[in-house]
Amino acid sequence: MTLYLDLAELLGARIEQGLYRPGDRLPSVRALSVEHGVSLSTVQQAYRHLEDHGLATPRPKSGYFVPLSRHTPALPQVGRAPQRPVDVSQWDNILELISLPPGSDVLQLGRGIPDISSPTLKPLLRSLSRLSRRQSMEGLSYGCIHGDPKLREQVSRLMLDSGCQIPPDEIVITTGGHEALSAAICATCKAGDIVALDSPSFHGVMQALKGFGIKALELPTDPLSGISLDALELALEQWPIKAIQLTPTCNNPLGYIMPEANKRALLTLAQRYDVAIIEDDVYGELAYSYPRPRTIKSYDVDGRVLLCSSFSKTLVPGLRVGWIAAGRYQPQILHLKYIGTGMTAQLPQLALAEFIAAGHYEPHLRRMRSQYARNRNRMTDWVSRYFPGGTRVSQPHGGFMLWVELDSAFDSQQLNRVLLPHKVQIAPGSIFSAAGKYRNCLRLNYAAPATTELEEAVRRVGAAAGELLAELRRTD
Amino acid sequence: MTLYLDLAELLGARIEQGLYRPGDRLPSVRALSVEHGVSLSTVQQAYRHLEDHGLATPRPKSGYFVPLSRHTPALPQVGRAPQRPVDVSQWDNILELISLPPGSDVLQLGRGIPDISSPTLKPLLRSLSRLSRRQSMEGLSYGCIHGDPKLREQVSRLMLDSGCQIPPDEIVITTGGHEALSAAICATCKAGDIVALDSPSFHGVMQALKGFGIKALELPTDPLSGISLDALELALEQWPIKAIQLTPTCNNPLGYIMPEANKRALLTLAQRYDVAIIEDDVYGELAYSYPRPRTIKSYDVDGRVLLCSSFSKTLVPGLRVGWIAAGRYQPQILHLKYIGTGMTAQLPQLALAEFIAAGHYEPHLRRMRSQYARNRNRMTDWVSRYFPGGTRVSQPHGGFMLWVELDSAFDSQQLNRVLLPHKVQIAPGSIFSAAGKYRNCLRLNYAAPATTELEEAVRRVGAAAGELLAELRRTD
């Protein structure tokens, strides 16, 4: 174990034992450095670690403090057992979110945009810029349908961290994660088929189901452990389900990590009922704990798991580079990719391959994981402080999204309408359900570094929510 | 009329009248400059123009000559009347073409790759490189689903040249032309429907039909005037056709430009039978004549034409930027785009908008049109010279593709197998037919500037074709 982790563990134990109490000032960096004979930066690293785990809070120019014993908000409730497969609705509410141009002055708290201001991204931009100047066939012409060989090699290496040994030629680069997921659905289902989903679930996938005329069966999902295996088994028994689609690691929007045992059990169920698993791992590398959790794909023995991912959440969305390891479905995926986009742009692929090969990806991930973990604590604090009493909040273990649940009569679409003149936008909960459930929920993005403007925006969302709720209670 | 055109017309008339005979040296640039009192560059421009029209040939350090009276090869034959709608085949043959990585040492004479070595592309690469360095939300985050507003404005302006007055908000930017065409098909048809096509036709579209379970009805197509309107009318009478898909301007692979009267008549037929038209205009701006031909879309009054295009043939394919003006189908297109790719990458859109706004696009097009017109003449010469007697050849009026038809017993897939060890690849004709017709045809790319290597490759293709034919005749 490294020095800073030793020290962090020691301090953490003292805090948990009550030697330092909530609100207490913790020993100064200098004092600890002398006391333990370690460098100042080691102590700082230890405090960073404690901060990531919610055990220390920095105050500018005053040092570190034990966080005030804050009220940990209750978790969101588990959705009801499924009624039946439904046709997907909600497109209009999504269209509103994705029609804003990037230069717009609306603070988009609802979209799945990572923090793209980190200096650890600079080498990627430099590569892209340099490669863009070259007037070469490699960068500017049609690439190979599978994607660039150098990038596939890097992706294959990255996947080892999630327990997957997948050779480069079983990976297909796609135009973002959307193309991967969309192709995965097309490759495994046809119009009229049924797909089982975690719920709440990513709207992009549900809209793909809608587009292809496939029905969605939303299953009860625990905010800490994910999709209910009992409900899934019952559903597999009852309906001719073709595929299970889920985001088991750093779920979007709930942020949980499905336990390994559940992942294995889910695969066993899929084998027993012979259905495909479409595993969205787009936030998987942003798990706050290290090493990153394994994917369901890592247990796959008969090629039934289609693992879909991208660099849109870990690096930047604008490059539109994702991938799929589709197992036995790879031939169909290649055809679907050809008819969908012909190929994926070469330049971003080449730049990404360079960035990863040069060793820039891991440090970037480390930084973002730690930033997002801190931001989660802060956003949870803000919501506890500024939202109406009784508000429930998810406890994300990765990614940068908070799921917020209000009183069952609340309407988050109405909230967005109220927020419109204030130039703030949240993601209404209903878009995360095929049937438009979760109207009383919303999703908040906590990727960006804290600013007073951001805090003010969250405060405003909370206040607006409070006013809407008060109104509701008056008219009741 | 400008000076150089006056002079070109005069010289052209003299050549056609036989004052200068095939093989004759034409007057020197200097002599003409003195004789007509115009600048040297005006004379050079005039010769360039004659060269583009096949009336003059430069010989290094010797000046311009009247081309040797060459045998103009016969045109390809018109396909037979359609049998019935069919399921599309041929995927494996296409997969072979698109699996080569761009760095491969195989000379890809079969793919639709423009010449990307022109210096007129430099400002585009500079823009892209500069924009790539900026760590901005505008370039790196999710854009608006419709595409970047600045680029849509430029595309709207460009479309005026083809007679279309389409406001920017009726244009959707897509990830290449593939996404536009694929979405157009999905928006107008569902599984089991029938689409009428020109024939031979672009394989990308036919594979999309295959992917979506839609049947293809291939109609007889004249190598100079395009799809047979009589056959189309008969087909519309006989089958429940949902859409007509065609490339009427600088057709791929035949290179013809459908006459304006035919375009109007086709629209009238579509209105009468209430079917959609999916118009692929991806080569339209590469028509050798100026001004560029009108699109069918330019006559559209009720939003039934879905105009699909891209910068993949006019600039570079690797940026993956296309667009669609989908008329009444725009809402469906937005949904399909969202589920297909989520959005189109921002950086290439911003770079393209800059490039066009700064006035770099028109000069580039002029240069490429003229280069491709010259290359067409040369490639036609080479094929006449190196291919077996009786070979038929298209007469492209735009783009950079030559369609070559050999003896009906010939097999161009076999030709590719023979060429494999020689590192040359052609596009076998069968991929341009839903039913695998045109096995005796092939498509050659003449975009690249002439080199001895290129001529040698064409010679080798011709020789290999000759040997295969001779073998066929021996075994007959």
Largest interface: A-B, 70 and 70 residues
Helix/strand-derived category of chain A reads alpha/beta
**Strand segment tally of chain A:** 17
Provide mean pLDDT of chain A, rounded. Answer: 93
How far apart, in Å, are the first and last alpha carbons of chain A?
Answer: 58 Å
Instruction: Please name the CATH architecture of the largest domain in chain A.
Output: 3-Layer(aba) Sandwich
Helical residue percent of chain A? Answer: 40-55%
Radius of gyration of chain A: 23 Å
Count of helical segments of chain A? Answer: 16
Count of the domains of chain A: 3
- CATH class of the largest domain in chain A equals Alpha Beta
Strand content of chain A: 5-15%
Oligomer: homodimer
Within the CATH hierarchy, at the fold level, what is the topology of the largest domain in chain A? Answer: Aspartate Aminotransferase, domain 2
- CATH superfamily membership of the largest domain in chain A, which one? Type I PLP-dependent aspartate aminotransferase-like (Major domain)
Estimate the global geometry of chain A from the Cα principal axes.
Answer: globular
Largest sheet of chain A: 7 strands, mixed
- Give start-end ranges of low-pLDDT stretches of chain A: none
Describe the structure.
The structure is a homodimer of 476-residue chains. Chain A is α/β, with parallel strands linked by helices and 476 residues long. Chain A folds into three domains: 3-65, Orthogonal Bundle (Arc Repressor Mutant, subunit A); 92-96 and 102-113 and 363-475, Aspartate Aminotransferase, domain 1; 122-357, Type I PLP-dependent aspartate aminotransferase-like (Major domain) (Aspartate Aminotransferase, domain 2). In chain A, 42% of the residues lie in helices and 13% in strands. The first copy, chain A, has 16 helices and 17 strands. The interface between A and B is large, with 70 and 70 residues.
